[in-house]
């Protein structure tokens, strides 16, 4: 029994070490400022509120599976940039003119804590901070730091999160085709996963074949995440508004739950195959992804 | 007469050539996309609507005065980044939870044309585009491209435009000290001028002394611009809402118009001295600044 249990315990312990390093570094990168610095407090609240840290953990694990050290300071900072960008995107997702959400990560949404103007300014400041952190990632050559900025900016901009948010807001209440829903999911989720894995490859100096396989992995993973999110809507305990998707055409509403569960399995199987191709010698990312989805499916029941 | 008139005409012609190059390049950097791409259209409208292009022209002229070629493609792209960031900041300045402005550059503000969610997303996408353009500036070494991103991100973020906008919104309706008004003006205007001139120095590979003098020039110029803006409030024909500042404590309201005009002269004199120190051999920027303020003061009457 012990021989089987040890690798799992050791995996859990290693994850906790990475989580602690991420929390510490995020706290350093977003200085507290003085009490009157309301935007700084809002930036910290949005980013440091307890979160799953999926994207930065994925980056650290994938880079480690590719042979990089997960203690590399540049890698840690790049991991923080995707978490900061994710936090900014959640702020904007929640504001009154978008989803007008009340709860996020178990707390009142940022605009309900700080007001709408501070929430928007905090999102803009977080995005700027993420680009600056990438541009200054310690120890990376300038060429790679500039490339990291480009990768992040593409994931955020007109062909990424911004377009996904626009499609979500503008088409959310009408009937949508399965293809339209998949396209929105791709922009809202897969694109930032794509950037996350691209930066893992960049930090690990991966070859073109591994980078391509990671990109395919990110596509499948992003779709799987969006499906889990859709399946979880209506389940309490997620820390978000329940039934936020009522009136939106999601894949669950369009295809039914069992078809969505089947698609989810397919995405996960393909994700796993791409990941195995990208990192034939590292298993951290595969364990992490498998454990995470198993846990989420248990929560949904 | 001709001997005196020629340099002026030649200066005007050179400016028009630079303006044309800027308009063309801005149009290329913000692709039109298809008709249904509403965010792309909003990004173009916000940036390409006729504007004074002060910041990018300053960058081109200052870099040229420092010995760089104003035809350098990297310099042109960096000049576009500050205009794109300026356009994004105006969008956010105008939205309902900030100034709730109706007119900008003689047209309905962006949120009145496209709705609030598209306006906010267009601002975010424009900022991302600016960072990507800087990160990819053609022909510059990676180190300098990364440094350009850092310069821009600092000007936008918590110590720049974001903080200026926050102070403007949160303190605008209460009585403020002269020092508080100057601090807000510094963040709302001088910081982006500072980044503009820093990028001019970077593109021209200027020495530390010239870079420092340009930074001092930017400080003085930013304050002068904010004073002209305050003096112009209430004057129609600026393309913006008139009397937008009613109820805000501006320097004009606090110190009176003649004291503000005196301060303006002092800022301009100091700006000119710093500029002469930075570029002892080039006069394009000095001519441009002098002509611009003369014209603005004529408009105000």
UniProtKB/TrEMBL annotation, chains A, B:
Pfam family, one: polyprenyl_synt
Keywords, alphabetical: Isoprene biosynthesis, Magnesium, Metal-binding, Transferase
Gene3D superfamilies reported for this sequence: Farnesyl Diphosphate Synthase
Cofactor: Mg(2+)
Domain of life the protein comes from: Bacteria
InterPro entries referenced in this protein's UniProt entry, alphabetically: Isoprenoid_synthase_dom_sf (IPR008949), Polyprenyl_synt (IPR000092), Polyprenyl_synt_CS (IPR033749)
KW Magnesium (keyword) present: yes
Family: Belongs to the FPP/GGPP synthase family.
Protein's recorded name: Polyprenyl synthetase family protein
Organism per entry: Vreelandella malpeensis
